[in-house]
Amino acid sequence: MTTNTTTFLSSDFLTDIKTQTSDSHKKLESLPVSASILSPDMKIEDYVHYLNLMHDVHKNTEELVYPLLSEIIPDLEQRKKKHLIEEDLLFLNSNKTAASKVFDKTEMSVPFALGVFYVIEGSSLGGRFILKNIVTNPQLADDKGVSYFKGYGDKTGSYWKNFLNVLAEYEQNNNCANSIIEGAVYAFDSIYNHFGSIKK
Known about the structure:
The structure is a single chain. The protein is mainly α. 66% of the residues lie in helices and 0% in strands. It is built from eleven helices and no strands. It has helices at residues 5-9, 12-20, 22-29, 32-36, 44-64, 66-69, 82-91, 110-134, 147-150, 156-174, 177-197. Helix 3 (22-29) packs parallel to helix 11, helix 5 (44-64) packs antiparallel against helix 8 and helix 8 (110-134) packs across helix 11. The longest helix is centred in the middle third of the chain and has 25 residues, at 110-134.
């Protein structure tokens, strides 16, 4: 991993991927299930439903995407979050039994997988914002049941920047912007479809 962080973090590619995934991102956030956990009157059953959906996303990511990126992202193992969701569901007395497939591709290129991971890691930033809302629920007081949304805690910003740096450096070295962006759009759209297809 490079130490020349500023150069890569200001790359045109990082601006492009944010711009070109913006519509897919907004579409996902507009879904009722996404809005439900940002409601001041959030119900625990909505929260549990959301966690179950995200468990599918992370399970699928760890099975499909992680093996492709093990040589690319130095701290990849520390970024796993499926177990955090399982801890939260356990606290809420909810057992995740059946798992649904989120990504229908069985094979991905490394650049495409990096695009998918861009979306997964980006959700950690949003998670910090969501955390402020969910902790107002009395059942989620004292930091119980919120492990997933706590994410990397105070290190969330630096984890994100470190990932972006790796991503932009990889893109520059391999000239694969289109494939990475294609993977990111695919991830947003796949999660959107997943969120819309699984009922409480």
